[in-house]
Amino acid sequence: MAVKEYTGVKKAFGPLIVLEGVKGAAYDELVEIEANGKKRLGKVITIDKDLVIIQIFEGTAQLSLPNTKVRFTGKPLEVKLSPDMLGRVFDGLGRPRDGLGEVVSSEKRDINGLPINPYSRVYPRNFIQTGISTIDALFTLIRGQKLPIFSGNGLPHNELAVQIARQSTIKEGEFVVVFAAIGLKNSDVRFILSSFEGTGASKNIISFLNLASDPVVERIATPRVALTVAEYFAFDLGYHVLVIMSDITNYCEALRELSNYRGEIPSRKGYPGYMYSDLATIYERAGIIEGKEGSLTQLPILTMPNDDITHPIPDLTGYITEGQIVLSRDLHMRGIYPPINVLSSLSRLMKDGIGEGYTREDHPNVASQLFAAYSRVQEVRSLASIIGEEELTDVDKAYLRFGESFEREFIKQDFSEDRSIEQTLDLAWKMLSYLPEEELTRVSKEQIDKYLKKVK
Q1: How many CA within 13 A on the CB side of residue 270?
Q2: Quick one: what percent of the chain has pLDDT higher than 70?
Q3: DSSP of 168-194, one letter per residue?
Q4: What are the distances in angstroms from CA 20 to CA 4, 53, 156, 240, 333?
Q5: What are the residues whose beta carbons fall under 8 Å from the beta carbon of 376, sequence distance 6 or more?
Q6: Closest CA to 299 of 176, 418, 145, 123
Q7: What percentage of the chain exceeds 90 in pLDDT?
Q8: Contact, 9 vs 17, CB < 8 A?
Q9: Which neighbouring-strand residues pair with 32?
Q10: Which residue has the higher pLDDT, 7 or 223?
Q11: Of 122, 94, 97, nearest to 107 (Cα)?
């Protein structure tokens, strides 16, 4: 397709410019804007006869409307792909940010990707070991799953993301982490990159950074650029890829801002009515394809405004994804890291990826018993706050001891502590040893004889 060029812009507002008299433009087409000797990138977002609205990733500041040249490239925004991207750092549009030069490759792909044919999808079953006991035992991450982390401002979600990226392993195959920073502060990005480099894990990590100081509109492209690279490594090169995206809330804020500029009718809390389907175009790119060796697993992170889990962003995310890991401000204030809220979290796919042949044969029953016991702890604590701890029965007092030990020994672990699934399950049995055996109704007598007596 021939490149079409126009000079002069009718109007500019926010990150958008308006052109008239444009022929043959296409929705989502990549556009190059040249003004004052500098080039910017944009894409077509609205077409009305010969009037076109273009979203500019770098913003419209200092544009001279009459002298601005707009070049339509006839193709969507693409990213170069190469095995040499391993260990490198890029900006939110896939341009090198590490000073190592451009990616040398003739392979380019549309960042919007293609939907996975449902008939070709393979049901996720295999376990990813994160080294974090609460996740591995109770909310197991399965290869090909999308399992978001629901956090809040000030909670250590970035630390948790880094730890998962460093420690995640699988039994077979090569593992790659793609990290997408969406609207993060410079201090957060410095912490993340230095943490990667300090462990030597950076050689298997590809980072895409959209900082808080970068253009807001660039945040719309960042997760799609990262996922396009992840799909290449997973389905073309056969790697098992874990994609960590932080912060999806910043992405949705950018979506709302752009929708406002476009004059669209707002939905809940001002977000566009199509936010559900827009998020689905990101989350549904996770999975396993029949006949392909690799897999693509997603761990998106979002900060819930005012810790409100009913807010549109976590609410819609929960409809699309297969569970969630919720961070607790109460546990965080008590010095427990990672502050994972056990009773509010779940992984809907873990039941098919744990047990004999995947983790250990006692895993399903132990997880069920831990849930039941910790749920009882909350009831006993409520009762103790009314009648006093000294009035509790011996069994209730045992549950209080279990609850305290569960939070201080099982949930809590150091930022650098990497526990194997065997260590995690043995520790779980140690926690259950604080309870009378007659209270362990969800594990078999054979399992009690085999594992409980070993840790006592």
Answers
A1: 10
A2: 98
A3: -B-SSS-EEEEEEEEEE-HHHHHHHHH
A4: 13, 9, 48, 47, 56
A5: 399
A6: 145
A7: 66
A8: yes
A9: 41, 71
A10: 223
A11: 94
Please count the CA atoms within 13 angstroms of the CA of 48 that sit on its side-chain side: 8
Q: In what order do the strands lie in the sheet with 11-13?
A: 4-7, 69-76, 29-35, 38-48, 51-56, 16-19, 11-13
Question: pLDDT per residue over 57-70, tens digit each?
Answer: 887 777 888 888 99
Q: Which pLDDT value is given to residue 36?
A: 79
Distance in angstroms (rounded) separating the CA atoms of residues 291 and 275: 32
Rounded to an integer, the average pLDDT of 154-168 is 91
> Which of 211, 222, 185, 212 is closest to 94 using CA atoms?
222
Distance, in Å, from the CA atom of 278 to the CA atom of 301, rounded to the nearest integer, reads: 16
- CA torsion 35-38-41-45 (nearest 10°) is -20
Domains recognised in the chain with CATH numbers: 4-75 (2.40.30.20), 79-352 (3.40.50.12240), 363-455 (no CATH)
Phi, psi of 74 (to 5 degrees): 80, 15
Q: Read off φ and ψ for residue 280, nearest 5 degrees.
A: -65, -30
pLDDT tens, position by position, 309-359: 999 999 999 999 999 999 999 999 999 999 999 999 999 999 999 999 899
Are 141 and 205 in contact by the 8 Å Cβ rule? The answer is no
How many C-beta neighbours within 10 Å does residue 342 have?
A: 24
Q: Determine the Cα–Cα distance for residues 194 and 205; give it in Å rounded to an integer.
A: 12
Residues whose CB falls within 8 Å of the CB of residue 385, separated by 6 or more in sequence, listed in order:
none
Q: 206 — phi, psi (to 5°)?
A: -115, 125
Q: Is 355 helix (H, G, I), strand (E, B) or coil?
A: coil
Sign of CA dihedral 385, 389, 391, 395: positive
From the list 426, 445, 454, 439, the residue with the least C-alpha distance to 398 is 439
Phi, psi of 130 (to 5 degrees): -95, -15
The whole-number pLDDT of residue 270 equals 92
- Biggest CA–CA distance in the chain, Å, is 83
- For residues 14 and 18, give the distance between their C-alpha atoms in angstroms, rounded to a whole number: 11
